[in-house]
């Protein structure tokens, strides 16, 4: 399959059989346990006959285009693990303008042909994009990574609404978006995620769900698994009490106001800069504090949120979110961490660690080796740490299924 998509699927909707798969590539693509959800969500519940939108299955994004051919409703869905929403949505808009009489099967083939020609240059971080009507090159920068093409004010609401949305996304208290169309809902969610840049959202999300999707039934029954959810079904707004914020999306045209989003981005940036400063401070006394993901203390939290519209309770929730955990892991290998690990004697920092902490430490150190390739000195020191940890664990009273792995050379 092409680098920028994992699968492509053509589906058909009939009154007698409902939604069903016509064809998909590759033939061995595994939809897992969410195949029914994939098929159901490929067609909006509101039965739009021409719609371009997004939804999610497992850890993949799905970009769908529904259209009519000879009074039959079809959908082409591209499954990808890349989150470049504007590129895929605009691709389908270009397809829509270019192919007005072609058969669904031909359009399915065209989709794969065009997407298969997208090429990424890691040296320049540029992606060569091929649309039916044009070819162009784009830098895969923050505009794409953080969905900055989607404006929160025009798609969600004014600053007062966005305050609640931002807080609920960051803390994981939950946000439910209810709109008129799947296209409106999915665009609004990408806009909402742009509010927390430069942090990437990593908690469970349903960009679009509908009646017939088991996940929608779970939400109606009170599931708190998904922290950000979009739907067109008003039943969710009526029944779901687990979401701290519920937004009924506006249907009037509102001018974009990117300066409003910048307020939230500056706030987010200030928070993570202060967090990183505290993490660096912790490394001065414990080189393993980042590896073991030691939580920040209450006094540290108070210093972080000083003069920021964010309470200590908010931060405690943020610190437990997968979004925070993934962000923290993404900055692990940095100069402060390297200097800390090299400045401590392994025997001293390992000496009084409990066995359960050593098990976690050993696993983390081995994973760390893959992230520091090329730094021979640091690799040698990490292997020294692993060797000492292993010696401690060999004499520990551990379950028989926990085997000590040999250090990497």
From TrEMBL:
GO molecular function: guanyl-nucleotide exchange factor activity
Origin organism lineage: Eukaryota, Metamonada, Parabasalia, Trichomonadida, Trichomonadidae
UniProt protein name: UDENN domain-containing protein
Domain of life, per lineage: Eukaryota
A GO CC annotation given for this chain: recycling endosome
InterPro entries given in the database record: DENND6
Organism: Trichomonas vaginalis (strain ATCC PRA-98 / G3)
């Amino acid at each position: 399959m092409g680098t920028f998509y994992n699968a492509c699927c053509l589906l058909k909707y009939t009154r007698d059989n409902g939604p069903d798969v016509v064809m998909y590539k590759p033939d061995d693509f595994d939809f897992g346990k969410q195949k029914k959800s994939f098929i159901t969500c490929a067609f909006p519940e509101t039965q739009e006959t021409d719609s371009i939108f997004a939804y999610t299955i497992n850890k993949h994004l799905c970009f769908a285009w529904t259209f009519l051919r000879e009074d039959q409703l079809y959908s082409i869905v591209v499954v990808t693990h890349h989150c470049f929403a504007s590129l895929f949505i605009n691709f389908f808009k270009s397809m829509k303008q270019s192919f007005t009489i072609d058969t669904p099967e031909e359009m399915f083939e065209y989709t794969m042909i065009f997407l298969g020609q997208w090429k990424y240059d890691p040296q320049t971080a540029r992606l060569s994009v091929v649309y039916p009507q044009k070819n162009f090159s784009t830098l895969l920068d923050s505009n794409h990574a953080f969905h900055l093409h989607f404006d929160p004010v025009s798609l969600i609401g004014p600053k007062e609404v966005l305050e609640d949305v931002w807080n609920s996304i960051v803390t994981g208290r939950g946000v439910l978006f209810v709109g008129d169309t799947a296209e409106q809902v999915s665009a609004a969610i990408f806009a909402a995620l742009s509010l927390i840049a430069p942090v990437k959202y990593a908690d469970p999300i349903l960009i679009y769900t509908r009646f017939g999707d088991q996940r929608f039934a779970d939400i109606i029954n009170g599931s708190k698994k998904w922290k950000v959810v979009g739907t067109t079904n008003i039943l969710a707004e009526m029944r779901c009490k687990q979401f701290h914020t519920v937004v009924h999306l506006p249907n009037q045209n509102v001018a974009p106001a990117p300066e409003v989003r910048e307020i939230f981005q500056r706030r987010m940036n200030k928070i993570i800069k202060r967090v990183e400063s505290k993490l660096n401070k912790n490394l001065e006394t414990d080189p393993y504090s980042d590896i073991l993901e030691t939580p920040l203390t209450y006094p540290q939290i108070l210093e972080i949120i000083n003069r920021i519209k964010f309470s200590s309770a908010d931060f405690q929730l943020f610190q437990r979110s997968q979004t925070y955990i993934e962000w923290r892991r993404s900055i692990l290998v940095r100069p402060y961490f390297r200097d800390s690990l090299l400045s401590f004697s392994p025997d001293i920092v390992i000496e009084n660690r409990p066995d359960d902490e050593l098990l976690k430490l050993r696993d983390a150190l081995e994973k760390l080796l893959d992230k520091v390739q090329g730094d021979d000195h640091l690799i040698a020191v990490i292997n020294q740490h692993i060797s000492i940890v292993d010696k401690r664990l060999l004499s520990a009273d551990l379950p028989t299924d926990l085997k000590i792995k040999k250090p990497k050379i």
